[in-house]
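Morning, I've got a small favour to ask if you have a moment. It would help a lot if you went through both lines with me. I owe you a coffee for this, so here goes:
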Amino acid sequence: MKKIEVNTKERKYTIHLGCGALNEAAAVVDELCKSKSVFIITDSGVPERWVDALAEQLGKPPVFVFEQGEASKNIEIYGEILAWLAEQKATRKSLVVALGGGVTGDMAGFAAATYMRGIEYVNIPTTSLSQIDSSVGGKTAIDHGGIKNIVGAFHQPSAVIVDPEVLGTLSERERNNGLVEAVKAGLIGDGELFELFEHDDYMDHIEEIIERALLVKKRIVEEDEHESNLRKVLNFGHTFGHAYESYFGGRYLHGECVAMDMMTVTEDEEKKTRLSAVLRRLGLPETPEEEADSEKLANLIMNDKKSGRGSVDLVRVREIGTAVIETTGMEEIRKMLK
């Protein structure tokens, strides 16, 4: 397995990357907590074979399963997880293992961040989206009041285990939904990563794609752990993207909304043409199929945590491999939406 060391002010931890890495989970967990009680949190969409393989290694600990999907990322399910941890007599020395996609990482991570003022957790992402992006960086959150990720905390994992083999159980749509985050990583921080999607079969380079995307995020997170400045470039594709997600109520997947956002904010025709070609290869939409109410979308953007008073920190890519943050007024945002 390859090891990528992440060094933040809150915690130093290792990303363990490689085919078959899930089978090495016990060694990773044992190294972290030989005497701690372990609890697995997963969702109904994770194949039973991955859950069973993990549980068997860890001595068959208690497992909490919630319904798959963004609709479960709410305060009610979060409360159920906390109540379950208490019923299982989890202590401040316990460790949570999150097994699943981004929603599972968010739910388990936020529960770990707040249960008894914070306990450790290990993230084992099973989707391309979570392997490439959300499992690293310490962002944990739930949705509330129709607003995505409005309640949350920064809580770094104790370790991350990334096994590309588990992606074989995903549908093509789900797999490509996550790969768009690697496209984003290439656009903002690694031109050669972006080029991997332009030539050959990108699936022949899947482990390299994941590794390069993680290295982009590692570099940014280490420099700006709590998103005070540089880390905001990771929001490329997410200003309009989150608004599309909320507005269309689940019709489009997260990565599909990110794809549409990136096309909206990319102005240079040459770069837009290259991006469009990559998105078509991935079967991702470039614009919504139906017309949306631009004023409702603008209101969703204003309620997003990235907005300020009458403006938004909008990320733009002027040259592939670098990004800039521009404070953009809501009038300009409205024009872009139209």
